[in-house]
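Re: the request from the purification team.
They wanted to know what the chain is likely to look like in 3D before they choose a buffer screen. I agreed to run a prediction and write the result into the notebook, where they can find it.
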Amino acid sequence: MSNLLEQAKIAAQQLNWSLVNHYLQQFISESKSNKTTSTLSWENVALDEVIDLAIEVLENGDFQEKWGIDKLFKQIGKPAISPLIEILKDREIDLEERWFVTKILAEFNSEEVLEVMGNIIVSSEAEDLQEIAAETLANFGDSGIDLLTDLLANSKLRLLVTKALGKINCISTIPALLSVVKDENNEVRIAAISGLNNYCDSRIPIVLIYALKDTVAKVRKAAIMGLVGYANLHQELGLVKLLQSLLWDINFEVSQQAAIALGKIGTDSAATALFELLKTATVPIFLKIDAVRALGWIETKVSLEYLQNLLGYNFLVEEHYQAQIVNEMIAALGKLEKPELKWQATDILIEFIVSGNLSLESVYVKKTLALALGYLGNIHALDYLIQLLEDEDNSVRLHSVAAMKQLDAEKAYQKLLSLSQEATLNSQLKTGIEIAIAEMNKFNKI
């Protein structure tokens, strides 16, 4: 083993830091293997020399070499703490080296490290070091929370500390986060609300509701995201009414989040709020698309009726955008999970096909329609899928075939064979049926 240490020293003299790390790793590995316990004992081992050589790698190695040496310090354990702390105290040492030292110390849960991390947050001028130190305290549990909470008193550190508290998965952080939800710094309020959104606690909803009126859009958005977690209390909290008003927020990101939240609450009153938004001509397309998706999540008879009404609705937009909205509604109907609604959704889509709506001229609408009918699984849709084989776009035909396989591959195949014998078929449908039969044959061979 001593030979390995000597080789590491020679490698250091040659400035070969990768090789130094290699020999030190081997040295420690063999030291462990010679012990009867899994804990590394440093009796009769030149610990100081190992640490000194590891620190030389930190001082002189490249980024990759420094990154590799941190594993060595973890193996050394607590004896490495004091020498590393001494490096941090020296402001003259290169910032990158101090960054690595801070990262290495973050692995050690000790009072010494707790104290030094607190000092870095308070006194360091390097934001990167402060962030690592704050994150390290976040991993210390209650002792770290106490120290971070004390640091909230410093307005210059409040944002950094609030973000760190938000990363701790512990209910002990709730009082600290609640204490800064009305801070004058916008970013602090955003971080506090975002942190509180990790919990479900009776102290939080009233704070989130208050934040819905914040002058900063990101705070309002974060509050909406948090309130979704209290959807089971929507009646007590009056969430639908609160969120409905935010559908018309001056900031569209807030409006989009409100639409998503209403979809997750999933009540008929939430569906009505989304329906009213969708009927309004001045609402931008991207918001209408989010509202359609949210309406599809609700999956009630009322939401289904709204989607049915909207399929034939003139949104007073350009033809391309009309097709885009219709496509989203078809997709929403095609994703329904409740068996009792799937049959009704199929009827709605078949009715839409029969209507000859102008949106049916869109290739991507027809492809989405085929996939939706296939997923819904109603064999009554087979004849309408066969109609799509007449389309001149081959991708539409292939989507139709894929849907037939989902409905009933054997029944669809026999129907296609029968139709292929009819002399009255127009050439385009005949070609489509031939393509479908060929695809079905491939499917049957698999």
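For the purification team: The chain is about 70% helix and 0% strand.
Please add any questions underneath this entry.
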